Amino acid sequence: MKQDRRGFLNTLLGIGGIGAIASIIYPVFEFLLPPESREPTVSSIKAGAIDQYEVNSAKILKFGREPVILIRKDSGEFSAFSATCTHLDCIVQYRQDTKQILCACHNGHYDLKGRNVSGPPPKPLTEFKVSVINNEITISTMEG
Amino acid sequence: MAKLTDSNVFKWLDERVDLSPLTKLLYHKKVPVHSHTIWYYMGGVTLFLFIVQVFTGILLLMYYVPGENSAYESVQFILNKVSFGWLIRNIHSWSANLMILFAFIHMFSAFFTKALRKPRELTWVSGFILLLLGMFFGFSGYLLPWNELAFFATKVGTDIAGAVPFIGDWLKILLRGGDDVTGATLSRFFGFHVAILPAAFTIFLTLHLLLVQRQGMSEPDSFTKLPDEKKKYISFFPDFALRDFLLWLIVLIALLALTVFSPWDLGIKADSLASAPEGIKPEWYFMFMFQTLKYLPPHIWFIEGEVFGLLAFGAAGVIWMVLPFIKIKKKLLIESKYYFYIGVFAIAFIIIMTLIGYLS
Amino acid sequence: MKNIIRRAYVLFVGTVIFINLPSTVRAYTLQDKVDNCFVCHQENEMLPEGFSENDIHFTSGIGCVGCHGGSAIEEDEEIAMSSKFGFIGVPDKKDIPATCGKCHSDIEFMRQYRPRIATDQVSQYFESVHGKKLKQGDNKVADCTSCHSAHSILPVDDPRSSVYPLNLPETCNHCHGNSDLMYTYKLKSNQYEEYSKSVHGVALLEHRDISAPACNDCHGNHGATPPGIQSISHVCGTCHVNNQQYFEKSNLSTIFSEAGFHGCEECHGYHSIPKPSDDMLGVGEKSVCIKCHDSGDVGYDAALSWGGKLNELRTIHEHAAEVLAEVVKKGMNDVDIDFALKDVNQSLIQLRTFVHTFDSKLIVEKADEGIVLANNALELADKEIEEYYNRRIGFGFATLAFVILAFGVYLKIRKSSNVKHES
Ligand code: HEM
Ligand code: FES
């Protein structure tokens, strides 16, 4: 009987102890595993291989919390700009026919250097740096 | 019951390093049992919460990036990208507050059980320094997420420090790392919080604990007066330690519950150009001082009310720290009949002022 | 004799300063020669009212004689201001456009100064109401100098100029704000007042946004005239491109022109155009639809439905923005919600333009598209907030383990409760 009691107590301590240790170790271990997006502030993103992009086309990408438009020009070169219209924050698009950046909301136009050329936008689009290394595209902020 | 000393590991170690001082300390230290025994646990709880702080603090350091443009973002990252990041951050915030709360409780229990009498004066002094360091820990940590409330609370807090006579300006600039609260202040507070304060705290904590272990637990008057056969004790190890451990587990469960059911907001990012939001309040443990300063008239005698208040708090702090040494008419203050009322007044003052601060 | 000394002195000083201060000093010297008109008139304090040394003609070396005739070289005033040198004195008001036109209509001449300058101002002027009236002998209308001043003319891009966008409304208001004068033409005189409170006026005069239209951007400059019914939407459409295009293709546009209504103006007003608000659509107090439509007619129902849709989208967008702020405050993941909300914002902005199609199907479609997007964003946000409170499952497991352990420790304490007495 006494043996039983002690056995029960030890099982209790054992289960509880292992459980407690597990519930401390597990979160700590998970915490230390780096999350998918490695850094809190995004300073560059990978945009894939160059052959994913046709000449004279564009794609909107997420740069952290900011939409960015990556354009492949006729010359095959890339440019990237903030895709947020400087007028009232609509998302801009690329016009293949006129080779301009268009904001459909109020017909604002930007040229391929991001300069506001017609319509209401008061300011140019912020430019991002595009570097191509081994056919892989990286977009980063101009500062670094 | 299997004793620790019977284990093979212990014997192996004992043969090489003489462990007898340790066993003596553990097995021979006795803890009195009486109606105030509960207060013996408060220092232990404070200690546990400090350990939790060190542990979670180190984990947070893996992802936290100080700096005006990264501090807020990195805490945001910890909260919503890192697995269990919210848990670690919330435990750290809750435990910080609880640690200071328990340090206060612990201090007043030492006060009322008169544990600070000879030979424990230095334990008291070191303990009070620990409390001050703990409050500074809180103050410096509060700014680290770089959110709006903390930013303005720091502004106000350091402004108050700037009102201290003679050294105020110097103190303010030293704290802020410049004329204003900026990214430089953040770097500096980060330095205080993760390097200077942990080092200082550890030194005083070690001293504090060594003193406690060397001197054993103090016995309140009601206990000493008992006839010997009525004096009950338990051994520090394992009996007291087990109870300590049980309490720590309970505190841990409570901590987890608080974390999960009442998590801390991150707030919105500080913008140094924005105007101050309404109702900036310091952390609760500064509230009674903050509120008192607010109530003082603009001028008392020939000095400014705020300066007077700061001087008064400074003086009160110093007196409180050297309390075990104070004699009035060759009689120790601790033994005088006013002693009890001083303590009651201090507690009542702190509680009432804090309440007013939150209710008004 | 006196003249010779003066002349020598001026020449000396002039040549010394000329090298260092080209633009001002060149004016004193009229192609290296002294402008005796200026010298004498200055000395006798007889410079014309409002004279400025910064005047563009004066600084470019076109002295008084450019407009008034006479000779700047002759030292004797009688000779200098004689008909021999074509002196005309103060030009007649009716001759002012021609006086300016002498140079300004001559492209050969103007090209020397500004290769791309226009030279049709005078001919445009005579097409304007001002010009036509002047021709008819009305002496109270504006001539060139009324707007440009006579003796302190500055280029339009100089902020000190009377025709710089920020100053222009004030300049027009000189006459158009004069109620007595305007009364003779049966015109109102409160345009400036109205304009300065309008969305355009506030943008220009308060926010100093010089891309906002001043008077001339709608009325033209030299050919100033009130825009006609046909042209009004084109005037607005130069900036509000989409709105104009949508409206032009709409049914309402045909009905309007048949009924002789002015396109944009009918709802938005003209000088006092207020900042548009969503309440203009619908059947509420501020609605512009109910100016014509009464309850029961088709237009009224359409207004009710469109106004409702627009309001619904705006409200849900505001709500979603609040929820997003809450998510941020709680430190939860807001990035995706933020992106989703950008799309909602875009739908809302586009819907406000789309309203000008006056096409139920398109408007409702666009609004519903936005509402769906907003609901998606809200769903994401709700998930985050739920997650914030729902981290309890793991907590359940951990608590269980800790409680079991605590219970075990408690039993152990009970079992080995060896309270000792002092031995
Ligand atoms: C802030 C962190 C602190 C920690 C981690 C800490 C820790 C401890 C521990 C573990 C004990 C032994 C158990 C007990 O008596 O409760 C103790 C005892 C003591 N502490 Fe502290 N303490 C702290 C702050 C303070 C403060 C603020 C004071 C007073 C100003 C203080 C005064 C004392 C005294 C007088 C004792 C001896 C009590 C006795 O022997 O009955 N401590 N401390
Ligand atoms: S939002 Fe882009 S043009 Fe208006």
Structure in words:
The complex is a heterotrimer of chains A (144), B (360) and C (423). Chain A is of the alpha+beta class and 144 residues long. Helices cover 22% and strands 35% of the residues of chain A. Chain A has one helix at residues 2-32, and strands at 44-49, 57-63, 66-72, 78-82, 93-95, 100-103, 108-110, 116-118, 127-133, 136-141. Chain B starts with 7 loop residues before the first helix and ends with a helix. Chain C has 423 residues and is mostly helical. Chain C has 24 helices and one strand. The termini of chain C are far apart. Chains in contact: A-B, A-C, B-C. Strand 2 (232-235) of chain B pairs antiparallel with strand 1 of chain C, so a sheet runs across the interface. The structure holds protoporphyrin IX containing FE and FE2/S2 (inorganic) cluster. Residues 85, 87-88, 90, 103, 105-106, 108, 119-121 of chain A line the site of FE2/S2 (inorganic) cluster (FES). FE2/S2 (inorganic) cluster is lined by residues 85, 87-88, 90, 103, 105-106, 108, 119-121 of chain A.
Fold topology:
The complex is a heterotrimer of chains A (144), B (360) and C (423).
Chain A: H1 2-32, E1 44-49, E2 57-63, E3 66-72, E4 78-82, E5 93-95, E6 100-103, E7 108-110, E8 116-118, E9 127-133, E10 136-141
Antiparallel strand pairs in A: 1-10, 2-3, 3-4, 4-9, 5-6, 6-7, 7-8, 9-10
Chain B: H1 8-16, H2 20-28, E1 30-33, H3 40-61, H4 71-80, H5 85-112, H6 121-143, H7 148-162, H8 168-176, H9 183-215, H10 221-224, E2 232-235, H11 236-261, H12 284-295, E3 299-300, E4 303-304, H13 305-321, E5 327-328, E6 331-332, H14 338-359
Helix pairs in contact in B: 3-5, 3-11, 4-5, 5-6, 5-11, 6-9, 7-8, 12-13, 12-14
Chain C: H1 2-20, H2 22-29, H3 36-43, H4 56-59, H5 65-68, H6 77-80, H7 96-104, H8 107-111, H9 121-127, H10 129-135, H11 144-148, H12 168-176, H13 179-183, H14 191-197, H15 199-206, H16 215-219, H17 229-237, H18 241-249, H19 251-259, H20 265-268, H21 298-329, H22 335-354, H23 360-389, H24 392-415, E1 420-421
